[in-house]
Amino acid sequence: MPKDDTGELIEVGSSVAGEAAEQNQYTKCHANVPISTLDFSGSPRLDGENPAHTRLLAEIDAALPPILVHRQTMRVIDGRHRLRAANLRGEQTIAVEYFDGDEDRAFLLSVSANLSHGLPLSLADRKAAAEQIIRQHPEWSDRAIAAAAGLSAGAVSAIRRETATGGGELTARIGRDGRVRPIDPTQGRLRASRILAERPRASLREIAKEAGIAVGTARDVRDRVRRGLDPAPVNHREEQGAPPEQGHEAPKTEFEQAQARFDTLTATLQSLKKDPSLRFTESGRRLLRWLEGHALKPEDSWVVPSSPPHCAVLIADIARHNALMLHSLADVLEQQGQQAM
């Protein structure tokens, strides 16, 4: 699972692959094509493929999954390491699945695929991908781009500020849910108040449509104007008890935080299960079983009330020892991963 600049785990929630599947842009039947006909350009990896990972895949004594190719350009979308491995093994052809969308969607799908399985993209790769997505889709919200590029919304916001073509005179952006939201909600509220002044009998739907705001926001503006209040005070959300602005989430309970961490770890484990170097080797499958068996769940909190008071200190010592051992293991693995990149 990727991390942002601060080391925070980022949830990758891009729906690019799902949308492509819904629009029948995949050709699921496998075709063997000559490797010489494939285009390697357009990779989201700034430094190209990792030689060590390529050699590892080449040594797997099993058929690897088909790679994904953009039919119109024959550019490889996902599976460059598998393609390099096939070259190392002296193979002349490789199994492919085709994607029939446009080149823009092909790039988004390439980034999404390299975030969800296989060798993850580096932070520099993900930042570069975010810059390209901002140039191609300045109307997308920070969170939508963050989900597509595997970054935090804050990191995307910083990149947008540094990117000259990051939005221009846009007044609204499209969120991950496909809904259009104003960049500055204050302006929409002010427009709504002017419409109310000119046409007091206008319906809430008419006001919302003309002002570019939600019907609920139009209702709130009307109520505030009737009470003689500012239609768009700085702290209007706190006063009205409305949901926080996009990018500012409400505080989560301790259980919700634990559940969120577990969901993130579950997603990471599912991603690892798709990695060919783990799926198709006995040592890899053993590692996956070990990881799954050592994953603590929020419901494991039953351990605390089930521990007799006179045994609590001893149980705590065992738990702390296991935690220290896992922490040391994590340090070694992290160092090994950094050396391989």
Strand content: 5-15%
Helix fraction, binned, reads: 40-55%
Question: What is the approximate shape?
Answer: flat
The radius of gyration over CA amounts to: 25 Å
Tell me about the largest β-sheet. Answer: 4 strands, mixed
How many beta-strand elements? 6
> How large is the count of helical segments?
16
Low-confidence stretches: 1-18, 236-251
Can you write the helix and strand succession as a string? HEHEEHEHHHHEEHHHHHHHHH
Distance between the terminal alpha carbons, to the nearest Å? 16 Å
Report the average pLDDT across residues.
Answer: 77
- The largest beta-sheet arranges its strands as 1-4-2-3
**Structure class:** alpha+beta
Describe this structure in words.
- Residues 226-253 are annotated as: Disordered.
- With 341 residues, the protein is of the alpha+beta class.
- Among the domains are: 16-166, no CATH class; 181-240, no CATH class.
- The protein has 16 helices and 6 strands.
- The strands form 2 sheets. Strands 1-4-2-3 form a 4-stranded mixed beta sheet. It has a two-stranded antiparallel ribbon with strand order 5-6.
- The protein is flat and about 75 Å long.
